[in-house]
Design brief:
Number of strands: 11
Distance between the termini: 19 Å
Low-confidence stretches: none
Strand content: 25-35%
Strand order of the largest sheet: 7-8-9-3-10-11
Order of helices and strands: EEEHEEEHEHHHEHEHEE
Radius of gyration: 17 Å
Shape: globular
Oligomer: single chain
Number of helices: 7
Structural class: alpha/beta
Helix content: 25-40%
Protein backbone atom coordinates (compact mmCIF):
# COMPACT_ATOMS: atom_id res chain seq x y z
CA UNK A 1 0.00 0.00 0.00
CA UNK A 2 1.03 3.60 -0.57
CA UNK A 3 2.00 5.86 2.31
CA UNK A 4 -0.26 8.83 3.05
CA UNK A 5 2.35 10.21 5.49
CA UNK A 6 6.10 9.73 5.12
CA UNK A 7 8.47 11.62 7.45
CA UNK A 8 12.24 11.03 7.59
CA UNK A 9 14.50 12.82 10.09
CA UNK A 10 12.03 15.70 10.42
CA UNK A 11 12.47 18.60 12.84
CA UNK A 12 9.56 20.74 14.02
CA UNK A 13 10.01 24.08 15.78
CA UNK A 14 7.53 26.39 17.51
CA UNK A 15 8.47 30.01 18.30
CA UNK A 16 12.05 29.21 17.29
CA UNK A 17 12.24 26.37 19.84
CA UNK A 18 12.81 22.77 18.87
CA UNK A 19 9.71 20.70 19.65
CA UNK A 20 10.53 17.44 17.87
CA UNK A 21 13.69 16.14 16.21
CA UNK A 22 14.69 13.18 14.05
CA UNK A 23 11.05 12.19 13.46
CA UNK A 24 10.79 9.22 11.10
CA UNK A 25 7.57 7.29 10.50
CA UNK A 26 5.01 6.51 7.84
CA UNK A 27 1.30 5.68 7.76
CA UNK A 28 -0.27 3.58 5.04
CA UNK A 29 -3.60 3.89 3.32
CA UNK A 30 -6.36 2.58 5.56
CA UNK A 31 -4.16 2.35 8.66
CA UNK A 32 -5.27 3.42 12.14
CA UNK A 33 -2.49 4.70 14.38
CA UNK A 34 -2.36 6.26 17.86
CA UNK A 35 -0.19 9.23 18.83
CA UNK A 36 0.46 9.41 22.57
CA UNK A 37 2.57 11.49 24.93
CA UNK A 38 2.37 13.95 27.78
CA UNK A 39 0.96 17.45 27.44
CA UNK A 40 3.59 19.58 25.72
CA UNK A 41 5.39 16.60 24.21
CA UNK A 42 4.72 17.75 20.64
CA UNK A 43 1.65 15.74 19.61
CA UNK A 44 -0.41 18.72 18.44
CA UNK A 45 2.57 20.32 16.74
CA UNK A 46 3.19 17.11 14.81
CA UNK A 47 -0.45 16.91 13.72
CA UNK A 48 -0.48 20.58 12.73
CA UNK A 49 2.63 20.09 10.60
CA UNK A 50 0.63 17.64 8.50
CA UNK A 51 -1.88 20.27 7.39
CA UNK A 52 0.63 23.11 7.21
CA UNK A 53 -0.56 24.97 10.31
CA UNK A 54 2.96 24.53 11.70
CA UNK A 55 5.82 24.49 9.18
CA UNK A 56 8.24 21.58 8.97
CA UNK A 57 11.56 23.13 9.96
CA UNK A 58 13.84 20.60 8.27
CA UNK A 59 14.17 16.97 7.28
CA UNK A 60 15.23 14.51 4.62
CA UNK A 61 11.60 13.92 3.63
CA UNK A 62 8.20 15.17 4.77
CA UNK A 63 5.33 14.12 2.54
CA UNK A 64 1.62 14.17 3.30
CA UNK A 65 -0.69 12.88 0.55
CA UNK A 66 2.17 13.42 -1.93
CA UNK A 67 2.56 17.08 -0.91
CA UNK A 68 6.14 18.05 -0.04
CA UNK A 69 5.74 19.72 3.37
CA UNK A 70 9.33 20.97 3.27
CA UNK A 71 8.61 23.10 0.22
CA UNK A 72 4.83 23.47 0.14
CA UNK A 73 3.61 26.77 -1.32
CA UNK A 74 0.87 28.84 0.24
CA UNK A 75 -1.42 28.34 -2.77
CA UNK A 76 -1.11 24.54 -2.39
CA UNK A 77 -2.28 24.45 1.21
CA UNK A 78 -6.06 24.61 0.50
CA UNK A 79 -5.73 21.61 -1.85
CA UNK A 80 -3.83 19.67 0.82
CA UNK A 81 -6.44 20.44 3.47
CA UNK A 82 -9.33 19.37 1.26
CA UNK A 83 -7.91 15.85 1.43
CA UNK A 84 -7.54 15.88 5.23
CA UNK A 85 -10.35 15.59 7.75
CA UNK A 86 -9.55 17.23 11.10
CA UNK A 87 -11.34 16.28 14.32
CA UNK A 88 -10.79 18.66 17.23
CA UNK A 89 -11.23 18.00 20.96
CA UNK A 90 -13.23 21.20 21.44
CA UNK A 91 -15.50 20.58 18.43
CA UNK A 92 -15.19 24.10 16.91
CA UNK A 93 -18.76 24.05 15.60
CA UNK A 94 -20.46 27.33 14.69
CA UNK A 95 -22.82 27.78 17.62
CA UNK A 96 -25.28 30.08 15.82
CA UNK A 97 -25.93 27.59 12.99
CA UNK A 98 -27.69 24.25 12.80
CA UNK A 99 -25.90 20.99 12.10
CA UNK A 100 -26.96 21.22 8.46
CA UNK A 101 -25.73 24.83 8.20
CA UNK A 102 -22.39 23.91 9.81
CA UNK A 103 -21.84 21.21 7.21
CA UNK A 104 -23.09 23.20 4.23
CA UNK A 105 -20.76 26.06 5.25
CA UNK A 106 -17.77 23.73 4.90
CA UNK A 107 -18.95 22.43 1.53
CA UNK A 108 -19.40 25.94 0.13
CA UNK A 109 -15.99 26.95 1.50
CA UNK A 110 -14.37 24.04 -0.33
CA UNK A 111 -15.95 24.75 -3.68
CA UNK A 112 -19.25 22.86 -3.73
CA UNK A 113 -22.03 24.70 -5.57
CA UNK A 114 -24.78 22.26 -6.59
CA UNK A 115 -27.45 22.36 -3.87
CA UNK A 116 -28.78 18.85 -4.53
CA UNK A 117 -25.28 17.38 -4.41
CA UNK A 118 -24.56 19.24 -1.17
CA UNK A 119 -27.76 17.98 0.45
CA UNK A 120 -26.97 14.42 -0.57
CA UNK A 121 -23.40 14.62 0.74
CA UNK A 122 -24.59 16.02 4.08
CA UNK A 123 -27.15 13.24 4.36
CA UNK A 124 -24.49 10.63 3.54
CA UNK A 125 -21.99 11.76 6.18
CA UNK A 126 -24.68 12.10 8.85
CA UNK A 127 -25.72 8.51 8.12
CA UNK A 128 -22.06 7.45 8.37
CA UNK A 129 -21.88 8.76 11.95
CA UNK A 130 -25.41 7.76 12.99
CA UNK A 131 -26.74 11.32 13.18
CA UNK A 132 -29.11 11.37 10.21
CA UNK A 133 -32.02 12.71 12.30
CA UNK A 134 -30.10 15.59 13.88
CA UNK A 135 -29.48 17.94 10.96
CA UNK A 136 -31.95 20.56 12.23
CA UNK A 137 -30.45 20.67 15.73
CA UNK A 138 -28.30 23.51 17.05
CA UNK A 139 -24.94 22.50 18.60
CA UNK A 140 -26.06 23.43 22.14
CA UNK A 141 -28.97 21.00 21.80
CA UNK A 142 -26.58 18.07 21.33
CA UNK A 143 -24.61 16.08 23.88
CA UNK A 144 -20.81 16.12 23.78
CA UNK A 145 -20.75 12.76 22.04
CA UNK A 146 -23.30 13.90 19.47
CA UNK A 147 -21.30 17.06 18.78
CA UNK A 148 -18.16 14.99 18.25
CA UNK A 149 -20.04 12.79 15.80
CA UNK A 150 -20.99 15.93 13.88
CA UNK A 151 -17.35 17.01 13.91
CA UNK A 152 -16.41 13.65 12.39
CA UNK A 153 -19.17 14.04 9.81
CA UNK A 154 -17.72 17.44 8.97
CA UNK A 155 -14.28 15.88 8.58
CA UNK A 156 -15.72 13.33 6.14
CA UNK A 157 -17.46 15.81 3.82
CA UNK A 158 -14.79 15.84 1.15
CA UNK A 159 -14.08 12.11 1.51
CA UNK A 160 -10.54 12.66 2.81
CA UNK A 161 -7.83 10.05 2.52
CA UNK A 162 -6.42 11.12 5.90
CA UNK A 163 -8.21 11.90 9.18
CA UNK A 164 -6.28 13.64 11.98
CA UNK A 165 -8.04 13.43 15.34
CA UNK A 166 -6.56 15.56 18.13
CA UNK A 167 -7.78 14.20 21.49
CA UNK A 168 -11.27 13.48 20.10
CA UNK A 169 -12.39 11.81 23.34
CA UNK A 170 -10.78 14.31 25.72
CA UNK A 171 -14.03 16.08 26.66
CA UNK A 172 -16.24 12.99 26.65
CA UNK A 173 -17.27 10.45 29.26
CA UNK A 174 -15.62 7.02 28.95
CA UNK A 175 -18.54 5.22 27.31
CA UNK A 176 -19.04 7.97 24.74
CA UNK A 177 -15.30 7.98 24.10
CA UNK A 178 -15.46 4.28 23.27
CA UNK A 179 -18.23 4.99 20.77
CA UNK A 180 -16.12 7.65 19.05
CA UNK A 181 -13.00 5.47 18.88
CA UNK A 182 -15.07 2.62 17.47
CA UNK A 183 -16.37 4.97 14.78
CA UNK A 184 -12.83 6.09 13.88
CA UNK A 185 -11.62 2.49 13.67
CA UNK A 186 -14.53 1.70 11.36
CA UNK A 187 -13.53 4.59 9.11
CA UNK A 188 -10.02 3.12 8.84
CA UNK A 189 -11.53 -0.23 7.86
CA UNK A 190 -13.37 1.61 5.10
CA UNK A 191 -10.12 2.98 3.65
CA UNK A 192 -9.46 6.24 5.51
CA UNK A 193 -6.07 6.57 7.22
CA UNK A 194 -6.56 7.74 10.82
CA UNK A 195 -3.99 9.24 13.17
CA UNK A 196 -5.49 9.82 16.62
CA UNK A 197 -3.72 11.72 19.39
CA UNK A 198 -4.85 10.65 22.84
CA UNK A 199 -3.93 10.66 26.53
CA UNK A 200 -6.14 7.64 27.12
CA UNK A 201 -3.85 4.62 27.08
CA UNK A 202 -6.75 2.35 28.02
CA UNK A 203 -8.26 3.02 24.60
CA UNK A 204 -5.00 1.88 23.00
CA UNK A 205 -5.30 -1.40 24.88
CA UNK A 206 -9.01 -1.90 24.26
CA UNK A 207 -8.78 -1.03 20.55
CA UNK A 208 -5.28 -2.18 19.52
CA UNK A 209 -3.36 -0.41 16.77
CA UNK A 210 0.18 0.83 16.20
CA UNK A 211 1.28 3.42 18.77
CA UNK A 212 3.61 6.37 18.20
CA UNK A 213 4.86 8.06 21.37
CA UNK A 214 6.23 11.62 21.68
CA UNK A 215 8.86 11.70 24.43
CA UNK A 216 11.99 13.78 25.01
CA UNK A 217 11.51 15.61 21.68
CA UNK A 218 11.54 12.34 19.77
CA UNK A 219 8.92 10.08 18.23
CA UNK A 220 9.20 6.43 19.20
CA UNK A 221 7.26 3.59 17.66
CA UNK A 222 5.62 1.06 19.95
CA UNK A 223 3.84 -2.06 18.80
Amino acid sequence: MANVIDYKKVEIHRAEKEVLKDVSFSIEEGEFCYLVGRVGSGKSSLLKSMYADVPVFSGEKAEVLDFDMLNIKKKQIPYLRRNIGIVFQDFQLLQDRSVYENLSFVLRATGWRDRAEMEQRIEDVLIDVGMQNKSYKMPHELSGGEQQRIVIARALLNNPKLILADEPTGNLDPQTGITIVTLLHNLAQNGHSVLMATHNLQLCEDFPARVLRCRDKELRQEF
